[in-house]
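Dear support,

We are seeing what looks like truncated structure output for some complexes. This example has three components. We would appreciate it if you could run it in full and send us the complete token output so we can diff it against ours.
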Amino acid sequence: MLQRIRTAPPRYWLVVVAILFFAGWPTVISSFQAGQWALALILAIAIMGLNILVGYSGQLSLGHGAFMAFGAYASAILAHRYKMDYLATIPIAGLLTGMVGFLFGVPALRLSALYLALATFALAVVMPSLIKRPFGLTGGVQGISLPPVVVPQFAKDGFTMLTGSAMTSDQWVYYVTFAYALVLFWLAWNLVRHRAGRAMRAIRDGEVAAAASGINIAGYKTLAFGISALYAGIAGSLLGLATGYISPDTFPVSLSIQLLVGAVVGGLASIPGPLLGGIFAYFLPIESNQWVPTQTWIPSQIVATVVKAGPAVTYGVVLILLMIFAPNGIVGLANAGYTRLRRRLRGAADRESGHMPPDPQTV
Amino acid sequence: MTALLELEDVRCGYGPTSVLHGVSLAVPEGGIVSLLGANGAGKTTTLRAISGGVRWLGDIRFAGRSLRRMHTEDIVGVGIAHVPEGRGILTELTVDENLKLGAHRRKDGAAAVRKDYDRVFEYFPVLRERRKLSASTLSGGEQQMLAIARAMLMKPRLMLLDEPSLGLAPLVVRSIFEIIRIINQADHVAVLLVEQNARLALEMSTDAYVLEVGRVAVKGASADLKGNESVRRSYLGY
Amino acid sequence: MQAFLQQVVSGIASGGIFASLALALVLIYNAMGLVNFAQGEMAMLATFIAFTLIDHGISYWIAFPVTLVVAFAGGILVQRIVIRPVERAPILTLVIVTLGLATLVNGVAGFIFGYVPRSFPSPFSVQTVNLLGAFVSYRDLGVIGVSAVVLLLIYLLLQRTTIGLTMRAAAHHPEASRLLGVHVSWMLALGWGLASAVGAVSGIMVAPILLLEPNMMQTIIIYAFAAAVLGGIESPLGAVIGGLIVGVTVNLAGAYLPFVGGDLQLAVALAIIIAVLVIKPNGLFGRPSVRRV
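Here is the complete output from our reference environment:
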């Protein structure tokens, strides 16, 4: 065991540091900020789900906001109408959404990447209208208000014991989200490393070849859809917990786009990517509105543009520039930089080990 | 006298794999030169280098002017017509549209173009019959005819032909080669002919180069190579 | 019966709008195998430009073609600056780029023009004329007329001119076309310019009806997708016919199916998309594509 710790690659240490960081983070930031970071983690969970679908199994979805909506409403209805304890509804909502996603994955099999993008995009656009209709169930335009969050006693006691101050509901929500994020990210990591993940990547990289190798294409693709919807459903459910109120307007098309942006920026087909992506997706619009005006070196017209036009312009520019210069997102850049560094350090050794240019053949 | 096309120590490859290791050859004005060799020797790559499809090192000069860094479409503009392996027929378009594309950059007037159309239909009557049909309905041999007709309409100074006999019945091949010879003589069009069918190619051409793994292994007048049994046995397979 | 006819004609008019945007989508799809998610937003921006011109006193019938020219130039610029760097990237990257472009254009329009809906003039009055016993508005007829003219012009350009031929060649067979001297790269840019102009027509036609604001085209593009998918994403003719069918169907569904009503018409479009993709993915006029292994 000690041996394993000593020989573990630096990556594992990074993970440990990150976990400790996020576990302790609420103790150094304000309660309000803890609420914000909870939302960022929620986005990260949804993005992780999207990443499984897009990054690992190669199916493009522009409608994950719709799955979040489904999960959120499932939880809300169970809690509001059927008086279930909200925390208990979260895994149920997740499973329900997962099943819906799985079913969605079946017709999706017949669609090429582009058509799938179209269909899911259309779904995302239509979703708010679809939610409004069953008025009795969903509360229509007015949405559903949820009872305020009550921090359970054991958590209050534990927190006070460790930090000496009382735990706020925002902090509690943060820790619930953090717990789910830990579990779900760990699950995703396992999925990717083992057979299912390899199968999905094989499908992503070349479906015909994968089929020829005997991989059950339909099975893994629908599985990917189901799992990614499950993640989005849990995220949506947690969103309800965090904000206390959901309505059709909580889930516009821009949410689905935001998720995709986060996935791409963080880095598709990576585990840490969605975490970075969630943080980016959540904080960029807020920061650009708050931070930019304080930077006196930026000319006032640009500041005005950024503030007025909001995140849209920034998102758009970032997306385009990223796709041109760094299609693998932040994680990709980090990986590339790391590889280059290692190669630089190893370069001399390579040259001596004899990587000779190919020998010209004589006739 | 400088040749119309000159390759000097051309090296190129695809990514990390090097395919040509220094190929030098020349095509004289109005001549027919064949480029022979086994599969994978680099014949197609040589043609692609000339027409700008791959990056290369060394020098390629056409009518004295280097083709370095020129885009394919501009190389076409200076008078080189490349009929690629597989013929490059635009199957989404009709036969007539394919032909029109051949002629679309010409500047010598509609009358001259019309005259060439007449000649094309004279050589290949089947193309006139199928004019309005999709090019995908043509058989292999007919597609080859279309490709050559189209190249003719480009009024090039040099034609690069990549395996025109591939997959075609012997009779069809004979007639196509006959027409290539006529085009060469009547229009004074030089031809660089890549062929696996060495015998046919040697009959047609004045000079020949044999490539082996990216280098010129043998070169000389076609008549000499034809007569040299050891060369034929080792390099040409017959 | 009269009401039915009215709905049908109205549907055809909407269909003309959908067909124009769908045609723009098809043009770009043919050129690059890519659906431009930003097509609607680009059309919206072009319409705002038209609005600005008209607002400054320029007559509608001059502002219209000027806008088309500007849209054309804009499309070329977009292709050169944004699309060309990622030309050879996998389709996912391209889709994301067009999504980014859509977001960007929407934001820019919002910044410059704000989000307050504005009325946009139509040269055709809303007065109705009696046609076969039904009352059809001049505006609907005008939309049908303009759409038909634009679509006809595009058809003539693509099928009957040399440049149209080279554009089609470049779209379907870029490598082989290069060997024939076609400047493929410029043909792609032209395709974008053309698509952009055609999309602008759609925007200008719809603005008087929906009121001009940055999010105006977001529903239209769904209808246009439905039209393009129904007609066969590769077929310009399919886009037109698909547009008409979608327009009429959605209109009739909204009028005659009680649970659909006004806001779920979009869901009808979604249903069409899904139904087509599941039953006959190549649409009415598309050709089954052979997948290269």
